[in-house]
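Dear support,

I submitted the protein below through the web form. The confirmation email said the job was done, but the results page showed an empty box. After a refresh the structure appeared. I'm attaching both so you can tell me whether what I see now is the final result or a partial one.
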Amino acid sequence: MPGKHDADIERLFGAGGPLGPAVGGFRPRKSQTEMAKAIAQAISEQQTLIAEAGTGTGKTFAYLVPALMWGGKTIISTGTKNLQDQLFLRDIPTVRAALQAPVSVALLKGRGNYLCHYHLERTLQNGRMTSREDVGYLREISRFLKMTSTGDKAELARVPETAPVWNLVTSTRENCVGAECQYYQDCFVMKARREAQQADVVVVNHHLFFADVALKDTGVAELLPSANTIVFDEAHQLPDTATLFFGETFSTSQVLELCRDVLAEGLAHARDGADWGKTVSVVEKAARDLRLTFPQDVVRLSLPQIAPSSDFFPALDVLREQLAGLLAVLEKQAERAETLEQCRVRGHELQQKLDNWKYDPKAKVAPGEEAVFWVEAYTSSLQLHKTPLSIAPIFNSQREGVPRSWIFTSATLAVKNDFKHFSEQMGLTGEVARTWPSPFNYEQQGMLYVPQGLPDPNSLGYTDAVLDCALPIIEAAGGRTFLLCTTLRAVKRAAERLRDEFEKRGLRFPLFVQGDRGRTELLDQFRKAGNGVLIGSQSFWEGVDVRGDALSLVIIDKLPFAPPDDPVLAARIEVMERQGLNGFMHHTLPEAIINLKQGAGRLIRDETDRGVLMLCDPRVISKPYGRRIWQSLPPFKRTRDAAEVIAFFSPEQ
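What the results page shows now:
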């Protein structure tokens, strides 16, 4: 039965329509129109829809058109802040103009993205800058404060987003003074939240959306009751993001930050109230001693993997005692200053997290908790994690209550047209799920190449074997290559080897390596070079768009299986296997396939793109599950013959 807005959607996306080929850059797309109609129907009936749209479908316009047409309040949550900015600055204004709709739009980010008047003033007064560069950045930020209406640090391009000085001039939930602040009326965080309250469309990101469930500190909670449509773009990221926020983390670095603030505020407001230096030093020592119970630099262990005789357990008890001692002092002194009261509240929150971290070394999953308890150590801090085994029940409780439409969309949600893995993770079993194919002619535009003779991916020297196969193909492609690796070690080895080989062979292909510069800068330079080779790991597998001739070859070194020592994955698989399921087939493999589809999706981004996807892992051919993998990839022409690939790149082709 035709929906209320079907005719309008046809007109908008049609050949002469305002969102037709001239805007999208493609010829009229049937998939986009059909997807928009399905989303319009889900919105009108307040239903849930899982919508997989192949690369090039134009899914952004396909959900924006019905969302803006239907009216009411819409929350759009996307994968990254960059995509948020793209939606807010480019895509929504285009659709709004085409619809001639008087729709108000707001952008809402986490508080760490907004300049804080109070902390900027405090930093300017303290003047404790560690480098001349920071002094210059602080001057720029001070100037920016006088000109900006939003306080969004993304607007100040001259100061890198990663510059340490931002931590001194933005607020956190813990150190925000709130309504007591003299600048409360001018606060950029509060202003952004007020605008979001009043807007018809609010653009957030997944981290912000789920952080609110855990922390109630992002402004999303106030928006949800009035929203009648929620769209999750890049929805394949949701299980990982939700797991991150529905869990709980206690960190020794949080304890050290609290100690630093207690010392400063105690000396400033209650110097005579306690021996503040001694009070905090015993807590700091206990936190550092806990970290030192693991001598290695980086550790990920579930509780049953920690020996019962380990120093970790007594050190944890000492930290509990010393933290309780600090809190006893704060209880007596907190009323002397608002900032001391804040420290007391933070201390109690940390104590609560520590108490929630119940440990029974014999049980992998705490009874009744349905959570995994595990430890992660970094060079200078130790984190105690409590991670839910399944996020489905928690997310389902968020979706109960007010009837509204929930749209989940991405280019990669299904495994061979089966949505079971995603829907079970998110608690969406039984909801409508549909796929719209890409408009690209993959058989004409691309080729899937699996080289012959590669060793087992776990063997020593595997990366070098991959590069031996890859070098003639990179040369034939004239550079223009992404080499996507599953580990940072492989990135490092590939960079060393390719530098040597390019020099030896006289190949003038600029090499761009993850970690040398920021992701955006690397991508910009890669596009400009036109014949570059970019080596990256996970962060380059998705959300990267290089159209045209600059990228013609994507090499993937291994199937992206999660590391088997991951404590959360191990516990989830153990539970599945107790239920009689095969953990590898039900969880590890579908997860790897969705990840692989993202990596493969970097290759063909436009109707005129041509290229080769070189998948180096021999398990695609040798293992029984291999067929399921390549059948989930775009329908490229397939080959195992290097000569055929080299011919694909020859000028006559």
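Response: this is the final, complete result; the empty box was a page-load delay. The first strand starts at residue 48 and ends at 53.
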